[in-house]
Structure formats: C-alpha cells, structure tokens
Amino acid sequence: MVRELLLTELERRYGWQRLQEVAAFLLQYLKTSQNPKEHPGVAQVQEWIAYSYLQPDKVVQELTELLEQSIAPGKDAHVSQYEKLQLATTMETVAGPLKNTALQQDYQHLIPICVQWYQSYTTDSGL
C-alpha cells in the first residue's frame, strides 16, 4: 500500500518518465549488486517490477508463460504454496504498470487463478 502511494505521488509530481527512470535505475542496481545472486527469487520479482514500467509486453509474456506452466495438468503438485503466492502477489504488484501493454488480454484469464491462490493461502494460514 505504501509502495503504491509513493509511486502514485511520484507519477503525479514528475510524470511517467520519472517512473521509467527509477525502473532503469533498479535494473542497473540489480545487475551490479550481489543481492540477486544471494536471493534469485527476490531479484526476479524486482526485475519484473522494473520491466513492467520499461517493457510491459516482456513481463506479460514471461508471467503468462510461467503461470500457464504452473497450471498445466500434472504440474500443480510441483508448484509449492509459496510459489503460487509469489506469482499471485507479483501479478498484483505489476498490475498497474501492465495496463500500458498491448498484451493485456493475454494474461487476463490468469488473474482469477492468482486470486484463488492468494485467497487459498490467506484462508489456510488464517490471515
């Protein structure tokens, strides 16, 4: 919630281009930081967030492929609850910037699945 507020205010004050500059800075930081090597899952999510401002079509293609693979028959048993939650929260995080993609229709059918995963997790964990 704080993140969204800060991004909204940044865009209001300085425009969309400033958000893209921050995204480019994040990508550059990830390339030079040791953190991605220590926490590759976190780094991947941060890359998707940055690319959602810079190359939203790329993010849609990658997330759509990943989500479709995770719901393929026989795959569900291999997708952990954590991975499902991570995918669901990533989709929620990048939803705003992905409104700027021409491929929005390509992933819309996957959003209810992510919502279901998230609700299942919060119900199972008592959140």
Tell me about this structure.
This protein has 127 residues and is mainly alpha-helical. The protein has one domain. Helix content is 78%, strand content 0%. It contains eight helices and no strands. The chain has helices at 2-14, 16-32, 35-38, 40-54, 56-71, 81-94, 104-108, 111-125. It is globular. It starts with a helix and ends with a helix. The mean pLDDT is 81.
Question: Count of DSSP helices?
Answer: 8
Q: What are the segments in which pLDDT stays under 50 over at least 5 consecutive residues?
A: none
Helix and strand string, N-terminal first? Answer: HHHHHHHH
- Tally of individual domains: 1
* Largest sheet features: none
Instruction: State the helicity in percent bands.
Output: over 70%
Q: Please, what is the oligomeric state?
A: single chain
Measured by DSSP, the beta-strand proportion falls in: under 5%
What is the CA–CA distance across the termini?
A: 17 Å
Mean pLDDT: 81
Content-based structural category: mainly alpha
Write down how many β-strands occur, each being a DSSP E stretch of 2 or more residues.
0
Shape: globular
Radius of gyration: 15 Å
